[in-house]
Amino acid sequence: MAPQPIAIPQKSPRVVATSISPPTQTLHDRLRHRESHASFGVIRQPKVLHPVDNEGLRLLLLENISQEAVSYLRAQAFTVDHYTKALSEDELVEKIPHYHAIGIRSKTRITERVIKAASKLLVIGCFCIGTNQVDLATAAKAGIPVFNSPFSNSRSVAELVIAEIIALSRQLFQRSFELRAGIWNKQSKGCWEVRGKTLGIVGYGHIGSQLSVLAEALGMRVIFYDVINLMPLGSARQVDPLQALLAEADFVTLHVPELPETVNMISKTELEQMKEGSYLINNARGRVVDIPALIEALQSKHLAGAALDVFPAEPASNGATFDDSVNSWSSTLRSLPNVILSPHIGGSTEEAQRMIGEEVSQALARYLNYGSTVGAVNFPEVDLRAITAEQGDHVRVCHVHNNQPGVLRQVNDILSPYNVEKQYSDSKGDVAYLLADIADVSPTDVNKLREQISKTRANILTRLLA
User: What tens digit of pLDDT does each residue of 140-162 get?
Assistant: First the structure.
């Protein structure tokens, strides 16, 4: 009688199955999974791999992730449930046990409680830049890599900042609001060209560097502050410390992640250090700015204006109110002149969402189908070249384990009766990840291999793909 497939265990340690070897090409080539490769003029197609337990993989996508991503993942034969809104922690705890993967944007929070309830969860995709909405350490310890899209919406955010700079300097939103109220108020006092003004960029990453180029094209001087030394683009100049940038810039724009050291990095002291009549723009994370302190700086006229696209607390869905029940100071902020408020739309363009959907959905599929963790933010980056259709009965072992001595020896002892054609292992912090391709493995041996490896003392998650 043929051996019966083993079901995925619902509690740790867990088991399921994949493979790819450390490429020798560029990082750009590594991020794009090659569907085929040529050898001596013969095109060899990669073999499609499946979990040996034969359980259909189910994906949960939230927050109106692009339809292109949904279509791509369904084309991979995954079952995809797609929702337009974020889910609360309680809702996630109820739903997540049924899914092997989840895709979110910035409003859904994957907490330790959610991860502990996710008995089948293999991977998390953040269809955005930030990953602070996910408990990355807990996910890694559970054997769950997290992927994001670190640069796909960079251009969209940079263009929005340019629009905000011009709109603030011309008091455009204020004049437009007055005219909609029936008031004609043509004036030039306090309105400026941006040419010749100084833009201070805090965080010179993907967005900050693109913004730098666009601003110089408008004739602005660009200075930037970053915690590491970076090569400037164009005529931009790095300054240190942050106070030097605040004192010199006419416009200060923030492009930093939310970390313990960046929460309220712009507060009363920093606002007082900014030039009188300058402007503050925040399209990064809501908790980076102390909003009550900003309101005070605007009311005192020390700052001439501000633009905010992100807030410490944000409504979970479109159509919800943005009032004092969301943030206690919301109504005061909304009443201030020359303040641009937008509902976290920095990356909300058709182009950005299409590219984000493509990048993250492909990363999810590569991990589920082949075990590749290239691009994971909380996990060792491991990859193996694809198994081809001509290679016969090959099995890919995907072994997530605690990073401790003796694990590889123990696993390789189990694999010793077989031909290990390729193998690659790496670690990150307390978590290590091994990929290995094994040749000529019978169906009976597949089940035995998985059981043996999953019982090793350091095992977190073992998947086998065949």
Answer: 999 999 999 988 999 999 999 99
- CATH for 154-341, options being 3.40.50.2000, 3.40.50.720, 3.40.50.2300, 2.40.50.100: 3.40.50.720
What's the confidence (pLDDT) of residue 236? 97
Q: Which residue has the tokens 């797609």?
A: 82
CATH of domain 14-151+352-465: 3.40.50.720
The domain limits of the chain are 14-151+352-465, 154-341
Cα–Cα dist 199/220, whole Å: 7
pTM of the predicted protein model = 0.78
Which amino acid, 425?
A: S
Using the structure block, give the residue that is written with the tokens 């200075």.
223
Q: Side chain identity at 342, as an amino acid letter?
A: S
CA 76 to chain centroid, in Å, comes to 22
Integer Cα distance of 162 and 436 in angstroms? 49
| 444 C-beta neighbours (distance < 10 Å), count | 10
Interatomic CA distance for residues 259 and 265, integer angstroms: 10
Q: Quote the distance between the C-alpha of residue 343 and its chain's center.
A: 19
* 394 vs 248: CA distance, rounded Å: 62
Q: Which residues are catalytic?
A: 285, 314, 344
User: Residue 382 has which token pair?
Assistant: 């491991």
Task: Label residue 176 exposed, middle or buried (CB < 10 Å: 0-12, 13-18, 19+).
Answer: exposed
237 vs 222: CA distance, rounded Å: 6
The DSSP symbol for 118 reads -
- Cis before 13? omega within 30: yes
Task: Confirm if 371 and 384 have CB atoms less than 8 A apart.
Answer: yes
- For residue 72, give every residue at least 6 positions away whose Cβ sits within 8 Å of its Cβ, in sequence order, or none: 357, 358, 361, 362, 365
The average confidence (pLDDT) of the chain is: 88
In angstroms, the Cα distances linking 412 to 19, 218, 380, 424 are 16, 60, 19, 12
